Amino acid sequence: MSFIYSQSFIRERAPQLRSPNSGVLLPQRDWDNATRVTVTGVSIQPVVTTETRDAAGIQSNEDWRIFSRRGVKLDLQFGDRVLWEGRVMDVIGLPQSWPGLTSGWHHSEVLVRAQSPARLAGVGADGLVREGALEAMTPTVPYTP
Questions:
Q1: pTM for the complete prediction?
Q2: How far is CA 18 from CA 21, 91, 99, in A?
């Protein structure tokens, strides 16, 4: 395995909740009863970070892409969660897998979005937020080769 595919994450998969009255599936998931599986041999790369500012404050989003190594189709589905380096991320859209030239799978790619820890309320009339508040929300993991 090459250095680029040296990362791992935990996949959470939760069943959908059912209406207690009708038994109809609800859009919400039962995260208290989620199954957890550790997935290894992937590369997790940043895609984009965006901010939305309005009268209520600032909402920050981080999108990441997970790449599998050659020959591996990732077992991720829309609705799954990914736990990685202190982040809780939701699978966005449908995971994409490319077939190999002769047979099997070449690789998979999955877009995930980190759940923002909190919406920062505006400070003062202009809604500016101190840099320290943003830094406090950002998980830091020391790099060790």
A1: 0.74
A2: 9, 21, 36
